[in-house]
C-alpha cells in the first residue's frame, strides 16, 4: 500500500452493507449541493470521518490531534495503520490522514502513493486532490502537479462578476458546476460497481437489503449507532 515503487492495486471491494448503501446516496446528495456553495464540504468531511461508526471516528480524531505535536507522530502513524488494517482501504479517511502525516514528515513519495489510492476509490475526494498537488510540488513534479490541479474542486465564486453567472454574493463559477457533474458521475459509477459486487456475493441487491443478511455474519452494519453522524 505504502511502497511508492509498486503500482496502485486495490483489494477486492467488499459488498455493501445497508448503511453503506444509504451513506453513498447521502454522499451524492451532498456532492450535488456543492454547486450552490461550500456549505456541503463540512458535511462531506464529517461523513467521511464517520463511515465506520463512532468508535472508529473517535480514534481517527485522536490521530488528527496528535499531528499537531511532532513528538506524537510515531503514535499517530501506528494508530492510523491499525485503522487501515482493521477497516481496509475502502474507508479512505485513515489513508488520507496517513498521507497528510507523511507529507508533514517529508515522506513525499509515500504520501503521493496514498493519495493515489484514495483517488482511485473516491476520485471526488477534494482533500486528497488538494493534497496530491502539494505533494507533487514538493517533489518538483510540476507537470504532474498541474495535471492534478485541474481536477481540484474549483472555488464556488468566479473571479469575474460578469453575467450570465450572477449571484447575490458574487459570480457563480461555471467550473464548479462542471466539477460537480463529473464528481456525481464518478460517484454513481462507484455506486453501481458496489451494487454489482454485492449482487455477485448475495444475489439480487433488493433481496440482499431486505433479507436481513446485512445484520448477519461479518457484514453487520458499521456500528450500532448512526455511522455518518
Helix content: 55-70%
Report the sheet with the most strands, covering strand number, pairing sense and barrel closure.
Answer: 2 strands, antiparallel
Structural shape:
globular
**Overall residue-averaged pLDDT value:** 86
Strand order of the largest sheet: 1-2
Number of beta strands: 2
**Residue runs with pLDDT of under 50 for 5 or more positions:** 161-168, 206-229
Describe what you observe in this structure:
With about 230 residues, the chain is mainly α. Helices cover about 60% and strands about 0% of the residues. The protein has a two-stranded antiparallel ribbon with strand order 1-2. α4 (about 75-85) packs antiparallel against α5. The chain is globular.
Features:
mainly alpha; disordered C terminus; 10 helices; 229 residues
Draw up the topology in text.
Blueprint: H1 18-33, H2 39-49, H3 54-66, H4 73-87, H5 92-104, H6 108-121, H7 126-138, H8 142-149, E1 166-167, E2 170-171, H9 174-202, H10 205-211
Antiparallel strand pairs: 1-2
Summarize the structure.
The protein is mainly alpha-helical. It has helices at residues 18-33, 39-49, 54-66, 73-87, 92-104, 108-121, 126-138, 142-149, 174-202, 205-211; strands at residues 166-167, 170-171. It is globular, with a radius of gyration of 19 Å.
Amino acid at each position: 500500500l505504502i511502497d511508492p515503487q509498486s503500482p496502485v492495486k486495490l483489494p477486492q471491494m467488499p459488498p455493501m452493507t445497508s448503511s453503506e448503501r444509504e451513506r453513498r446516496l447521502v454522499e451524492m446528495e451532498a456532492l450535488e449541493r456543492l454547486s450552490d456553495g461550500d456549505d456541503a464540504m463540512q458535511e462531506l468531511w464529517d461523513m467521511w470521518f464517520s463511515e465506520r461508526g463512532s468508535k472508529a471516528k473517535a480514534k481517527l480524531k485522536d490521530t488528527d490531534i496528535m499531528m499537531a505535536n511532532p513528538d506524537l507522530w510515531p503514535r499517530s502513524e501506528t494508530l492510523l495503520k491499525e485503522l487501515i488494517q482493521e477497516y481496509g482501504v475502502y474507508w479512505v479517511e485513515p489513508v488520507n490522514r496517513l498521507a497528510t502525516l507523511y507529507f508533514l514528515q517529508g515522506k513525499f513519495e509515500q504520501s503521493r502513493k496514498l493519495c493515489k489510492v484514495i483517488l482511485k476509490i473516491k476520485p471526488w475526494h477534494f482533500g486528497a486532490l488538494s493534497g496530491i498537488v502539494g505533494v507533487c510540488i514538493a517533489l518538483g513534479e510540476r507537470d504532474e502537479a498541474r495535471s492534478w490541479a485541474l481536477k481540484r474542486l474549483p472555488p464556488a465564486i468566479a473571479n469575474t462578476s460578469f453575467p450570465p453567472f450572477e449571484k447575490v454574493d458574487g459570480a457563480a463559477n461555471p467550473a464548479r458546476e462542471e466539477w460537480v457533474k463529473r464528481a456525481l458521475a464518478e460517484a454513481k459509477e462507484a455506486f453501481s460497481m458496489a451494487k454489482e459486487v454485492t449482487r455477485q456475493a448475495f444475489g439480487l441487491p433488493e433481496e440482499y437489503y431486505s433479507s436481513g443478511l446485512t445484520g448477519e455474519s461479518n457484514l453487520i452494519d458499521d456500528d450500532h449507532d448512526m455511522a455518518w453522524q
